[in-house]
């Protein structure tokens, strides 16, 4: 459902093809060889026949309708990504014709926002989109080496220094956390189906 209303909408067939691959034995993103180079993939291992596609499509549409009814068809979500790009333009670091540094700054900003979605601190639930956008810009500018205005510019976007500092530390620590998770899941499959998630939840409760 999210893929349909995204900046680049995806078809139902594309969504099902992706999940077919994720559930197949060919999925290796979380289990790359030691050299980091993926092995050659056999498309036949996750190919969806027309019958399989129609069956899964019906299940997907039914699931979507249940979710929409549960949400009362309220699908508006405020995300910090567009805000971050607007803030970069306001700060004069993302001109109408982007330069090399401005492109890198925008990429790193969006990368931090995407990574923060996985944060164990649940940053997206505890902080407002403007604060997330400002923190991602601050961290990205420091990494890329782009100098922002000398004044406390984050206050213009209603973000306090204490909150900014907390978010910068939280986003900056994600690289280490992701590496720990990669090591943790290296020996076992990431749960993707309902049954696998239930088994994983039960395992964690027993710990």
Defining traits:
207 residues, mainly alpha, single chain, 9 helices
What does this protein structure show overall?
- This protein has 207 residues and is an all-alpha fold.
- 56% of the residues lie in helices and 0% in strands.
- It has 9 helices and no strands.
- It has helices at 12-22, 50-70, 80-90, 100-116, 123-126, 129-144, 161-172, 174-184, 194-206.
- Helix 3 (80-90) packs antiparallel against helix 4 (100-116).
- It is globular.
- It starts with 11 loop residues before the first helix and ends with a helix.
- The mean pLDDT is 85.
SSE layout and pairings?
Layout: H1 12-22, H2 50-70, H3 80-90, H4 100-116, H5 123-126, H6 129-144, H7 161-172, H8 174-184, H9 194-206
Largest sheet: none
| Beta-strand share of residues | under 5%
In terms of structural class, how would the helical and strand content be classed?
mainly alpha
Helical proportion, percent range: 55-70%
Strand tally is 0
Radius of gyration: 21 Å
Number of helices: 9
Net shape: globular
Query: What is the terminal separation in angstroms?
Result: 34 Å
Low-confidence stretches: none
Order of helices and strands: HHHHHHHHH
Average pLDDT taken over every residue: 85
């Amino acid at each position: 459902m999210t893929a349909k209303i995204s900046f680049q909408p995806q078809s139902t067939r594309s969504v099902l093809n992706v999940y077919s691959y994720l559930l197949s034995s060919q999925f290796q993103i979380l289990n790359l060889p030691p050299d980091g180079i993926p092995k050659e993939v056999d498309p036949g291992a996750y190919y969806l026949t027309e019958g399989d596609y129609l069956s899964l499509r019906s299940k997907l549409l039914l699931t979507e309708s249940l979710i929409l009814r549960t949400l009362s068809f309220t699908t508006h979500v405020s995300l910090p990504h567009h805000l971050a790009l607007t803030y970069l333009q306001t700060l004069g670091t993302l001109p109408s014709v982007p330069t090399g540094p401005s492109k890198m700054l925008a990429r790193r900003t969006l990368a931090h926002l995407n990574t923060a979605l996985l944060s164990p601190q649940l940053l997206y639930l505890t902080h407002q989109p403007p604060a997330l956008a400002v923190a991602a810009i601050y961290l990205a500018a420091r990494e890329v080496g782009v100098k922002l205005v000398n004044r406390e510019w984050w206050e213009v976007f209603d973000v306090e220094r204490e909150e900014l500092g907390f978010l910068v530390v939280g986003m900056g620590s994600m690289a280490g956390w992701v590496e720990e998770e990669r090591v943790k899941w290296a020996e076992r499959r990431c749960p993707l189906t309902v049954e696998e998630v239930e088994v994983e939840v039960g395992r964690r409760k027993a710990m």
